[in-house]
Design brief:
Layout (H helix, E strand, L loop, with lengths): L1 H18 L10 H21 L2 E6 L3 H6 L9 E7 L11 E5 L15 E5 L8 H14 L2 E7 L5 E2 L4 E2 L6 H10 L11 H8 L7 H7 L4 E7 L2 E9 L1
Parallel strand pairs: 1-2, 1-4, 2-3, 4-5
Antiparallel strand pairs: 5-9, 6-7, 8-9
Helix pairs in contact: 5-6
Length: 235
């Protein structure tokens, strides 16, 4: 009986780790699979209308799309991945890597793309006015889009991989980061480094996402009845 209990606890722990898995190159996360199915639906609508689909992935990588290439017909799909840091578009997929800022996509004309996609990026671009700029650019460069972000009121902070830390005052959070490593947040030796770290991810609630993307349907990804992520979808 004790062994059965231990096995049950181990399996439950494995499921929990999978659910909060933030690796961009993993198919194990069920929410990410569902999210990509939504994207596939948008892309297939465009292909049915136009015969091809051009995607802009804000914050994307080649590795991400290699993980999910089985979902899309890449003979009819091209992707531009925009990142602040340059990267090579190595591989066999029709992907270009562009250097750019999510808040300023002026290299692209209005509706230059068929679908805009962004996965866990908008919480990293800065304060509210920065998020507004990114949201406006997403809506400008493509008539259809899917934008996902972690939900503020989910009790586990996915970047720090720590419970409740994002609900604490900033004056407490930066002190914690100066004391120890928290998930992807490395331990910092200076106040400046610690403050920059805790300010690097500012999560959103439902009303904020609706304000940023008023023309989208807002989908709520749930774990154990709690909203874990928000996905704004237009199209």
């Amino acid at each position: 009986m004790e062994q059965v209990k231990r096995s049950a606890f181990a399996e439950a722990g494995k499921r929990a780790r999978t659910v909060i898995d933030v690796s961009p190159v993993s198919r194990d996360n069920p929410f990410r699979r569902e999210r990509m199915q939504r994207l596939k639906g948008l892309v297939e609508v465009v292909i049915a209308e136009k015969g091809a689909c051009k995607i802009i992935d804000i914050g994307g990588t080649v590795g991400f799309w290699e993980t999910w290439e089985h979902l899309l017909d890449f003979s009819k799909v091209t992707i531009d991945c925009v990142n602040v840091a340059p990267a090579d578009a190595t591989g066999h997929l029709p992907i270009r890597m562009l250097v750019g800022d999510a808040r300023d996509l002026t290299f692209a004309a209005d509706n230059a793309y068929d679908v805009a996609f962004s996965n866990s990026v908008i919480e990293h671009v800065g304060l509210w006015q920065d998020m507004e700029r990114m949201a406006a650019e997403v809506r400008r460069v493509a008539p259809r889009y899917l934008v996902q972000t972690p939900y503020f009121w989910f009790p586990v902070e996915p970047h720090a991989r720590s419970p409740l830390i994002h609900w604490l005052p900033e004056s407490w959070k930066y002190r914690i980061v100066m004391h120890r490593k928290c998930g992807f947040w490395e331990r910092q030796d200076s106040v400046a480094g610690a403050v920059r770290t805790v300010q690097s991810a500012i999560m959103l609630d439902i009303r904020q996402m609706r304000a940023l993307f008023p023309d989208a349907d807002l989908h709520k990804e749930r774990f154990c009845g709690l909203i874990k992520s928000l996905v704004a979808v237009k199209g």
